Amino acid sequence: MKYKLAAIMCAALAGCGGGSSDPILVAPEVAVLPADATAVSALAGSSFGFPSGVPAFGTTDTTTLSLSGTAAAPGFGISSGGNTASGTMSFGSCIFVVSNSTFPAGHPMAVGATVTVNPCNIQANTQRAAANGVQISAPVAMILGQATSTGSTVTVGVSASGQLLFNGNLAGRITLVPVSG
Prior knowledge:
Layout: H1 2-13, E1 25-26, E2 30-34, H2 37-42, E3 47-50, E4 63-69, E5 74-80, E6 83-91, E7 94-101, E8 114-117, E9 120-125, E10 136-144, E11 147-148, E12 152-158, E13 163-166, E14 169-173, E15 177-178
Antiparallel strand pairs: 1-15, 2-9, 3-4, 4-5, 5-6, 6-7, 7-8, 9-10, 10-11, 10-12, 12-13, 13-14
């Protein structure tokens, strides 16, 4: 009876040889991916706060960046110091083309201005999420040049193939790491 119970436990835990040697994969603690049309559209409806401003935008007060649109037509909104600007985005770096603005003429965020920010990345606290597609709430931040936003809470998921999902939408691919220990 003892041997039968041991054999059952051994088989159930796959710890007695013959078990799968495939490692369990998870996302890294922090996943960083370049901001591109796919990632930005996956974050449409999210806002990111920069407590000390964004130097590339010419702001030094608290600055809020809101993302909108689709991968085909990503958009943005900026607010800082009582002024606002909005327009469209393109990528390679993040390229903000201002079409509406209350910032004064000559300001980097004035109407007609184009601001290129590099690096332009998205950082997700994936908390070593299992690569199983289950979605969790996690902080996601934008990195614009030397400015990093506070985290915006977003639903994040990681597929077994390394697809990173924000709010159920494909944001990009990440390299998975095996569970150690």
